[in-house]
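Revision sheet: structure tokens.
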Amino acid sequence: MKHNKPFLIILFGTALILATPYLKANDSDPLSISDAERARHEATGVIGGAVLGGLVAGPVGAAVTAAFGNWVSENAIAKKENVLLARQIDSQQEQLLAVQAEYRALQAIHQLALQENRSTQSQLQSLRKSKAEMTAIAGCCDDAEITLHFTTGSKEVQPLYESKLAEFVALASQHRNTVVTVIGHADRRGDSSANMMLSRQRVTTVVNRLRHLGLSEHSFDTSAYGEEAPDSREDSLENNFFDRRVVLKLVPATSPMLTQADD
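Predicted:
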């Protein structure tokens, strides 16, 4: 027991000496251990153990407690480094999660932008297509107008207009998004009511002829004015001939020229 007592005193004293710097280390910067701090802790353990061991047990005790003090210091520092490393890992994981969340948010914004871009491109292509179609229709319709003249009191189409009607039908068949306007007139001779009726009959005859030639599925916009819209203000034999007419015109389906059918 006499030999063990000095040894226990040495261990107790060494532990007491080493506890103080270790506790101070726990109170230092929680994010890192500097090289200077590490050296100070190790020196404290070695020197403190050696001094206490030397006082109690002489040179042998100094050597033993110095080695023991160094081991305790290194163990304490290793534990603290493990704690700090765990904290750093947790912090980096939190940062990584934040970056991943931001990345997912940016991906969602990117996908939304792509969808909006595709929608805009589709609308733009549709507008360009519509514009091209309307331009083509407007171009075709600039000269798509013919006038048929009739003999006095007649509603029958004269054979000399058959070729013109066939050309008109061919042109209208190439442009489905169009409407055929048919406007009937009569001269100023005779009863106005009878002239109105005659102009309507002429319109009906022309529409039936166009349908027979191939425009059975096409849209028509018809109207009749009788003697109310003469081609010339002067009432003469020649002007009366030009007043007895039906005017055909091919117009775009959305044209403001369209009127309510008057059949």
